[in-house]
Amino acid sequence: METAPLKQTTALKRGIGSRIFSTDHRVIARQYFFLSLGAVMVGTALSLLMRFHLIYPQAQGMTPEFYLSLLTLHGTMMVFFVLTLAPLNAFGNLVLPEQLGASAMAFPRLNMLSFWITAASFALLLASFFAVGGGPLSGWTAYPPLSAVGPISGPGEGLGQTLWFFSIGLFSIASLITAINMISTAIDERGPGMTLMRMPLTCWNWFVTAILSLLAFSVLFAALLLILFDRLGGTSFFVPAGLLVADEAIRHSGGSPLLWQHLFWFFGHPEAYIAILPGMGIVSHLIANFSRKPVFGYRAMVWASISIAFLGLLVWGHHMFISGLNPYSAIAFSLLTMAIGAPSAIKTFNWIATAWNGALRLTTPMLFALGFVSIFVTGGLSGLFLGQPQIDAYFHDTYFVVAHFHLIMGLAALFGIFAATFYWFPLMFGRMMDERLGKLHFYLTFIGAYATFLPMHFAGFAGNPRRYSDFTTFDFLAKVMPLQRWITFSAFSLASVQIIFLWNLFHSIRHGKAAPNNPWEATTLEWSDDAAPVVRGPYEYSQPGATRDYIMQNENADRGY
Amino acid sequence: MARTLTQSNLGGPPPILPDVPPGDGGGDDRDRDRPIPGSSRQTSITGILVLMCASIMTFSALVSAMVVRRGLNNDWGRIGLPHILWWNTGVLILSSIAIDTGRRLLRRNKRAAFNWYWSAGTILGIAFLAGQIVAWRQLAERGFYLTGHPSSAFFYIMTWAHAAHVVGALGAVFYVEVRALRFELGPSRRTMVDVSAIFWHFLDVLWLGIMGLFFFWA
Question: Nearest residue on chain B to A10, judged by CA atoms?
Fold first, then answer.
């Protein structure tokens, strides 16, 4: 295998100005990657502060309000700036045009604009934490009426909460621009021969995710518009009549907090799929590569992604079972929610079937891909409980839900991000990450993930409420405290293990082994310098009669594979 | 999407495509020897259609919020629409007709006539915005402010959102206008003409939707 330099290196040679305000999708991809890396570090630090406070509530002067602002910032940071940016914006930008055989994204300048709006949104979010009065307290879901009535509902609900809304508004605009860009790229910028059904599953999932992102963020934007008018313009969309907050009558009249929940969750539920669908694509892609087998049921995988996205738009009500939803609507939402189990199961079975009897190469990215499958299944199973209105009535405000969404949305997506980072690191930096450290990092992270989040299910069984800053004042929770202590210790261990990853990442950028042209012996175009048209599907591994166990998508029969 | 040619990844080797020009091997979009991404007509039209989907979703969310909010409480009062809104509707439709006539003339290479029609469309677009401002003032004089009446709150927010779209579209129309008056509209910029015309017509449809909603229902 020749060791020609990867094509990305040309982008690094230019001046600093063009590196910062670049329209090159690979540079923008790295910018998104490091932005979300920064966000994940801040978000983790916030969660550790919370975990510490939960087991030593007396140790420091942390007010319940401060705890809530940590919770809000942690959630917002992770959901928007990590789980949305890294899988979709960072890796989508890096790989989508390359795999499609496009020279660049459809609208490079809009792409740059989108990144800088996102960066401004991140700056605003950080600023909200230091706003006069304190950081926002309303959680990442920002439920009114308390989020809509201003500082009377809490010290951080003034300027801090307003900045939060503006930050998420900017984020929505940036996400819409990115979605338009990706959809246009996938539809019109595909290279010669790259038909829709020859697109790698990664591209399919980014494409479907971009569509979902377009539909979801435009609705969130409308909701943000309305709530900002409630806060700043004195309208009454979400604030009910006769509301008393802190013994004071609120002047608004006639709105409905439930209206916000409908609009928010119409965005919020698809947002969970925006976080996880790219991971599913990455995992399908990697399992095929490292099993040296074609993806089992390529078409089924494509249609499963599409149906997950479609159903994902129809199930927002399952977040509102205990909000006073009509029981008949609850049944409908519940049935639709259960229906998502079908395409999810198709995916899981196809991942297993792809790896089955394969010539497995247990590299770090493959380990993370398999870890994704494990965590996705574990997190998905608790979804079957929460999808039923009767059971959700008990679990909804407990740590069971915390466990569920951290596993299925947080950690599963994070494992996808880790897999993608190790897999496409050569494409980003022209070097390889260290495999030995990578494996160590994987095993410790995998154990730490389960050790931290599995016990939360049991805390949930015991009725341990979430969002509380102090459990020690409740007698019935005394028995849960040892569990909570374990969770905190485990969370600190899980976080410290990530130092291995950070060291591996930054050390490999400069000193990693130089990457060969096609380090993983993959079939897709991002590893090809050849501009020949695509002539075959994306997963032709171990084809009978071939001289090597992979055939690139643009390799012709007469060119001697 | 006309290129769709399904190929099972498990099947035999697919047919070799005859005489396909070599693709772009990556690189910087500043390299002028390559086609500029997004400059292709089809991509720009797809982009504007997708943007329109996003706008439709945002307005649908606002309309559904309005439906829910109206059913919630008995504080809903109809607002009388100022008459100038009907004039504005006419002005917007006229501007659309002017812009489209211009676009058709440009296709037949009648650049001078295009300039006249496009300028007329631009001026009518600005007139529409001015008319909207008058309408908001008249509404306020009748006692319908952003606060107080939920119906007028929705009216203000939707018409503001529509006006924001018009301002954005006017930016594009202005760009074409400046280029046109300098007779700089080469073939690559004609995509810009078509795309801004498409979006301009979309604003008509959006506006008629808002007018219909408030005239017949709210």
Answer: B27
Residue A245, beta-bridge partner list: A248
The identity of residue B181, as a single letter, is: L
pLDDT of residue A16: 67
- Residue A241 backbone phi and psi in degrees, to 5: -75, 150
Nearest to A218 among B17, B58, B147 (CB): B58
What is the number of other CB atoms lying within 10 angstroms of the CB of residue B70? 16
Is B28–A10 a contact, with Cβ atoms under 8 angstroms apart? Answer: yes
Residue A548 one-letter amino acid: R
Q: Note the pLDDT of residue A10.
A: 46
**Range in A209-223, A309-323, B100-114, B128-142 the model is least confident about:** B100-114
Note whether A271 and A512 are within 8 A (CB).
no
Instruction: Check which CATH number belongs to the domain holding B183 and give it.
Output: 1.20.120.80
According to DSSP, the residues that pair with A249 across neighbouring strands are: A244
Minimum distance, in Å, between the CA of residue A326 and any CA atom of chain B: 14
Which of A291-295, B2-6, B146-150, B175-179 is the most confident on average?
Answer: A291-295
Residue A36's SS3 state is helix
Confidence of residue B39 (pLDDT cuts 50, 70, 90): low
Structurally, chain B folds into a number of domains equal to 1
How far, rounded to the nearest angstrom, does the alpha carbon of residue A416 sit from its chain's CA centroid?
A: 9
- Per-residue pLDDT, B20: 36
Determine, for residues A107 and B20 on separate chains, whether the beta-carbon distance falls below 8 Å: no
- Domains of chain A as residue ranges with CATH: 9-239+253-559 (1.20.210.10)
Note whether A94 and A26 are within 8 A (CB).
yes
Whole-angstrom distance between the N-terminal and C-terminal Cα of chain A? Answer: 14
Verify whether the Cβ–Cβ distance B4 to A179 is below 8 Å: no
**Residue B30 binned pLDDT confidence (cut-offs 50, 70, 90):** very low
Determine, yes or no, domain membership for B105: yes
Mode of pairing for the β-strands spanning A248-249 and A244-245? antiparallel
At residue A138, φ and ψ (nearest 5 deg) are -85, 5
Q: Distances from the Cα of B156 to the Cαs of A413, B131, B134, B146, in angstroms?
A: 41, 14, 13, 6
Interface confidence (ipTM) of the complex: 0.91
pLDDT of A3 higher than 50: no
Give the residue on A whose Cα is nearest the Cα of B145.
Answer: A235
Decide if A255 and B26 are in contact by the 8 Å CB cutoff: no
Q: A532 in contact with B at a CB cutoff of 8 Å?
A: yes
Contacts of B20 in chain A (CB under 8 A): 192-193, 533
Classify residue B10: in a domain, yes or no: no
**In which residue are the tokens 């009648």 written?**
B110
Token pair, residue A161, equals 């909460």
Q: What are phi and psi of A133, to 5 degrees?
A: 100, -25
Residue B160 falls inside a structural domain: yes
Provide, as residue numbers in chain B, all residues whose Cβ is less than 8 Å from the Cβ of A263. 61, 64-65
Angstrom distance (rounded) from CA A507 to CA A438: 12
Cβ pair A124, A159 in contact under 8 A = no
Structural domain of B171: 41-71+82-216
CB nearest to A536's CB, from B14, B34, B64: B14
Q: Is residue B6 part of a domain?
A: no
Mean pLDDT of chain B: 82
State the Cα–Cα distance between residues B190 and A488, nearest whole angstrom: 62
Q: For residue A12, count other CB atoms closer than 10 A to its CB.
A: 12
How far away is chain A from the Cα of B163, in angstroms, using its nearest Cα?
A: 15
The residue behind tokens 């909010």 is B69
Contact yes or no for A448/A494 (Cβ under 8 A): yes
Q: Do A226 and B5 touch (CB under 8 A)?
A: no
Report pLDDT digits (tens) over A295-323: 999 999 999 999 999 999 999 999 999 99
